[in-house]
Amino acid sequence: MEFAVIHTIENVAAWQEALDTHDAFPPGFLLFAFVEAQDRSRAMCIWRAPSKEALQESLDGFFGHAVVNEVFPIDVHVLEPQA
């Protein structure tokens, strides 16, 4: 199942350290996209994961000391770029 995550970054230094040092996610987790706001106040990710609870638990374990993670299920749509 696919999920979006909005990370509200509360400690930029701790967030960056967690990004630089976290372990790989277990099998069954696939990160499709990751973007950060230019001011580093928020970030967003798109994941495939076994469940919302499993993704929430993993993200909170890796990054929860630096951010608030809001995980929600999504329907993925592919849009063609407009010229």
Describe the protein in words.
This protein has 83 residues and is of the alpha+beta class. It has a single domain, classed as 2-Layer Sandwich (Alpha-Beta Plaits), CATH 3.30.70. It is built from 2 helices and 4 strands; from the N terminus they run βαββαβ. A hairpin with a 5-residue loop joins strand 2 and strand 3. The chain is globular. The chain starts with a strand and ends in a 10-residue tail after the last strand.
CATH architecture: 2-Layer Sandwich
Briefly note the structural class of the backbone. alpha+beta
**Strands of the biggest beta sheet: in what spatial order?**
2-3-1-4
Please indicate the percent range of residues in DSSP E strands (runs of 2 or more): 25-35%
Per DSSP, the total helix count is 2
Could you say which overall geometry the principal axes of the C-alpha atoms support?
Answer: globular
Radius of gyration: 13 Å
Mean pLDDT: 93
The CATH class, by name, is: Alpha Beta
Per DSSP E runs of 2 or more residues, the count of β-strands stands at 4
Brief account:
Helices cover 27% and strands 35% of the residues. It is α+β, with helices and mostly antiparallel strands. β2 (30-36) and β3 form a beta hairpin.
Keywords:
single chain, 83 residues, alpha+beta, Alpha-Beta Plaits
What's the topology here?
Elements: E1 2-9, H1 12-21, E2 30-36, E3 42-48, H2 52-63, E4 67-73
Antiparallel strand pairs: 1-3, 1-4, 2-3
